[in-house]
Amino acid sequence: MKKALPSTSPEHTVSDLVNLAWCALMALHIAQQDGQALSSLTTHTFLLRWLAVAQKQKRFPRSIASDIEGLLVLVRKKGSAANLLNRLEYLWISCTGPVFVQSDLYRLTYAIEQLKCKRLT
Fold first, then answer.
1. How many CA atoms lie within 13 A of 54 on its CB side?
2. Which residue from 74, 19, 61, 110 is spatially nearest to 27, judged by alpha carbons?
3. Domain ranges of the chain
4. What are the backbone angles phi and psi of residue 19, rounded to the nearest 5°?
5. Residue 71 contacts residue 24 (beta carbons within 8 Å)
């Protein structure tokens, strides 16, 4: 018999995404301090490999497995034009900054998610 997966709240999923972005950016920063990933191409390659290994080793919760897969598919499809570093930085900034300084779309999405949570409880 399979165990039922507990549903995760949007706040928990966002927290997991923030953790993913932070870990990726810190791994990149450490690699750059070690003299690796100094150009945009090597940065892209480093982050792509890091994400692939994170997915393979299941380092992050299932709640964001589809997000990791989506990033990998996008990056493999578009290559360095996918701007993986910018996407991870945007993810970090948009999820850690105060809601009132975010874009209108982000605030609208946040408000909708909050209303969904209120309705479910």
1. 24
2. 19
3. 10-120
4. -60, -45
5. no
Count CA atoms closer than 13 A to 32's CA, side-chain side. 14
Q: Compute the average pLDDT of residues 68-73.
A: 94
Which residues, at least 6 apart from 53, have a Cβ–Cβ distance to it below 8 Å? none
Element (H, E) at 65: helix 65-78
CB atoms within 10 A of CB 9: 15
Closest CA to 46 of 25, 28, 66: 28
What is the model's pTM? 0.76
Q: What is the 3-state secondary structure (H, E, C) of 30-63?
A: HHHHCCCCCCHHHHHHHHHHHHHHHHHCCCCCHH
What pLDDT was estimated at residue 113? 67
3-state secondary structure of 9: coil
Average pLDDT over residues 60-81: 92
